[in-house]
Structure formats: structure tokens, C-alpha cells
């Protein structure tokens, strides 16, 4: 009997993705499918299958329902699990806790019940950290987490569940800072700016504080980081995924405005002029670089161009009355 079968893995490795249709999930799925012949089979799980995805590589499941999760895991028999599913603001606090914390705990419990080796990469968030003093930047994985928002707490609880896992589970957490690039949702400032600039019906964009700085990392680099952790990461550790630097939100706005031809007028809304969250945020990425060899490759400027090109090409729904 060969080693894979002895370990309880399928003969062909199976990569199971949750949240594969989301902002982070799509580039990860694309990266894995691009090397599917050499890596193994890619299976996605979720409530609804996108119409352009083959049915034989999708499992329908409610990740907040234990029996539904059990059925999907049993059918997939994964070697590696990438858990990207969850919710972000402006979802309600109750939705955040159920979708981020409870769903992660159910997934890990189900995998543990099977008593088979499996590597699991959970996606965390810089929001878990809460406030970080500027003298502690760039912030490392050892910094204490003091989340101040329901979203940050829901992700921190999911991280705690992952760190509590024991063999045969091999769990690593990718704490992602500020992903950007094609598909950036409008719930994020730069995604909202690009959507407004590309909308021919918009003449004015009202914005709040533009002086905050964030560690923007391209979503395609994030996909590479998740794969690198699955292959080389060490179980029981958190890995910060960012660039190690930060960019001013206002500079991103200005570049998107230039790319758009400066058709839309930008004005400051005094009611939103106070910064939300920390003034600056930067990740110490030495751990993931040392353990996996991963480094971000896509520049801030290239990410903004890709964001703009995708927003401009996005189909627009007709107005309803």
C-alpha cells in the first residue's frame, strides 16, 4: 500500500476551498486550477454554485450546519483545506459571529472527527489585532490581539479555534492585512472609489479621511501566500500576509482618479473626516518569508491598475423603479 493511502489521503490529492467565489477565493481557485494537473483535484464548497463552474467540482453545503459540513467533507475527502468563507462588514454582529467563528469551529470539529491527516489554512484579518501603537509597526505575529470591532473579534475567535487544533489536523492561519486588486468589493474604500469613478451616472464622489495608511497587498499575491503556507507552513502558527509597508488611502484615490480621466469631482465630507481605525498599519512578514520563501511580487501601482480595469469592465445592472 502506498504512502498516501496509508495516511488516509486519497491517491490524488484533493484541495477543498470554501468561499471560492469571493474576492480572495477566486484568485486562489484560479491559481490552483492552473496547476491542477500537477497538484491534484480542486473542489469548492458553498451554498450556491456559480453558473460558470463545473458541477462535478462543486459541493453544496451550509457551513453553519454541522450535518451539512460533515456530508461535504466526507464526500470530498480533502488532503488540504483552504477556509476563506465568511462575512465582512457591514454584516450584522450576529452574522459575523455565526459565519466567521461558528462556521470555522464546525469545520475544524468535522475534520477532527475523521481522524485523518489534513492541512488546513484559515484566513484571518489584521482586524484581529485591534489598536497597534506606531512604535510597534511593522507588527509581528506575537503582538497581543485586542480586537475592537465585532468583525475583528469574530475573526480572532476563529483564529483561536485554529490554534487550539491538534494532530492529525495541521492548521495554519494567514492573517491578511488589506487585500486589493481586481474584484475589490465596494465595502472597501478603494473598491468604492473605483466603482464610482467607473459609473457614467456619477458626477461627484464624497469621501472621508484620506490620510490613513494601510498595508495593501495584491489579492493575487495573497493567493500565492495561501498556497505557500499549505505547502511549507508550520502547523500551529499565525503568519502575517502583507507587504511590510503602507500606502496612503488618498494616494490610491488620486491614482484611480487619474486612471478614470478625472471626470468625477471629489469633495471631502466633513461628517466623515475623522479616521476610522488606526492611522497606520503595517505587517512584519519575516515569518512567512523565512518559512515559505513567499514574497509579494505585485506593486501597489499595478494593483490599482488591475482594480480600475476590472471595475471599468464590470457589467452594470439596469436601474429599477
UniProtKB/TrEMBL annotation:
A matching Pfam family: Epimerase
Gene3D superfamilies in UniProt: NAD(P)-binding Rossmann-like Domain (3.40.50.720), UDP-galactose 4-epimerase, domain 1 (3.90.25.10)
Residue intervals of the NAD-dependent epimerase/dehydratase domain: 16-242
Domain of life: Bacteria
InterPro entries linked to this entry: Epimerase_deHydtase, NAD(P)-bd_dom_sf
Protein family per UniProt: Belongs to the NAD(P)-dependent epimerase/dehydratase family.
Name of the molecule in the record: NAD-dependent epimerase/dehydratase family protein
Amino acid at each position: 500500500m502506498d504512502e498516501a493511502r496509508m495516511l488516509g489521503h486519497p491517491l490524488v490529492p484533493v484541495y477543498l476551498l470554501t468561499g471560492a467565489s469571493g474576492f480572495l477565493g477566486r484568485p486562489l481557485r484560479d491559481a490552483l486550477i492552473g496547476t491542477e494537473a500537477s497538484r491534484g483535484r480542486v473542489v469548492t464548497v458553498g451554498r450556491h454554485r456559480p453558473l460558470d463552474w463545473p458541477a462535478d467540482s462543486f459541493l453544496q453545503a451550509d457551513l453553519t450546519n454541522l450535518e451539512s459540513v460533515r456530508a461535504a467533507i466526507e464526500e470530498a475527502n480533502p488532503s488540504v483545506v483552504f477556509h476563506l468563507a465568511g462575512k465582512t462588514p457591514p454584516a450584522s454582529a450576529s452574522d459575523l459571529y455565526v459565519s466567521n467563528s461558528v462556521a470555522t469551529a464546525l469545520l475544524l470539529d468535522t475534520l477532527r472527527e475523521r481522524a485523518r491527516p489534513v492541512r488546513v489554512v484559515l484566513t484571518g484579518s489584521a482586524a484581529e489585532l485591534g489598536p497597534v501603537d506606531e512604535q510597534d509597526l511593522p507588527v509581528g505575529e506575537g503582538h497581543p490581539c485586542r480586537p475592537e470591532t465585532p468583525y475583528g473579534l469574530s475573526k480572532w475567535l476563529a483564529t483561536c479555534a485554529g490554534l487550539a487544533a491538534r494532530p492529525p489536523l495541521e492548521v495554519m492561519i494567514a492573517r491578511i492585512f488589506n487585500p486589493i486588486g481586481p474584484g475589490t468589493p465596494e465595502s472597501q474604500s478603494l473598491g468604492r472609489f473605483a466603482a464610482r469613478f467607473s459609473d457614467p451616472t456619477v458626477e461627484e464622489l464624497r469621501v472621508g479621511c484620506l490620510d490613513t495608511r494601510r498595508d495593501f497587498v495584491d489579492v493575487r499575491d495573497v493567493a500565492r501566500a495561501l498556497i505557500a503556507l499549505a505547502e511549507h507552513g508550520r502547523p500551529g502558527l499565525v503568519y502575517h500576509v502583507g507587504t511590510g509597508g503602507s500606502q496612503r488611502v488618498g494616494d490610491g484615490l488620486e491614482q484611480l482618479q487619474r486612471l478614470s480621466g478625472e471626470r468625477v469631482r471629489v469633495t471631502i465630507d466633513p461628517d466623515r473626516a475623522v479616521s476610522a481605525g488606526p492611522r497606520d498599519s503595517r505587517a512584519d512578514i519575516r515569518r512567512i518569508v523565512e518559512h515559505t520563501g513567499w514574497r509579494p511580487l505585485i506593486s501597489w501601482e499595478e494593483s490599482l491598475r488591475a482594480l480600475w480595469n476590472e471595475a471599468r469592465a464590470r457589467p452594470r445592472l439596469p436601474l429599477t423603479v
